[in-house]
Amino acid sequence: MLSSVHQASRSIEIGVDAGTLMEVLCDFEQYPRFLSSVMAVELKEQEADRWRVWFEVVLFRRNLQYTLDLTRNDNRKLSWVLVAGDWMTRNTGSWTLTPLEPSLTRAAYSIQVTIEGNLPPMVTSLLVDASIPRLLREFKRWAEHSAQGNPPPRRSPGEVPA
Predict the structure, then answer these.
(1) Can you give the CATH number for the domain in which 123 is found?
(2) Are 137 and 152 in contact (CB under 8 A)?
(3) Does a structural domain hold residue 77?
(4) CA–CA distance, 139 with 135 (Å, rounded to integer)
(5) pLDDT in tens, 108-160
(6) Number of domains, the chain
(7) Phi, psi of 107, rounded to the nearest 5 degrees
(8) Is residue 153 part of a domain?
(9) Which residue of 8, 49, 71, 103 sits 20 to 30 Å from the alpha carbon of 19, by its own alpha carbon?
(10) Is the pTM of the predicted complex or chain greater than 0.85?
């Protein structure tokens, strides 16, 4: 069985303040409403700025389940580590928020994933790299609409947001 490691980082400017964006990032139970790859989320534990969250996502056209431990550091950083998961032996990463203006924040997303399976490393890299821009766009759309008091309509499971 092959093991494929991939690391990627991207950033996007989002038209909300860092505090509002951090609220969106930490509202895990809302993810299925706006992230096209997230089918279900369950908050397992919460203590102050730490969460254990179970996710079911569609990745590589297959359902994948995993649990992350997430930690928030003020309104600057949300980081995570894998606790358990199908196919993955590692999933570490973070969102780092940098205020640019009162209502503009740069959100830098970074991830390192190790996937077990029969996918060649090049295929894993392409799939991970292709999913990040969509993820960033979906967070941007949700955060900006929510900040204006009108979140986009709820999507149906499996529906790809516009």
Answers:
(1) 3.30.530.20
(2) no
(3) yes
(4) 6
(5) 999 998 877 666 666 666 667 778 999 999 999 999 998 887 766 655 544 54
(6) 1
(7) -110, 115
(8) no
(9) 8
(10) yes
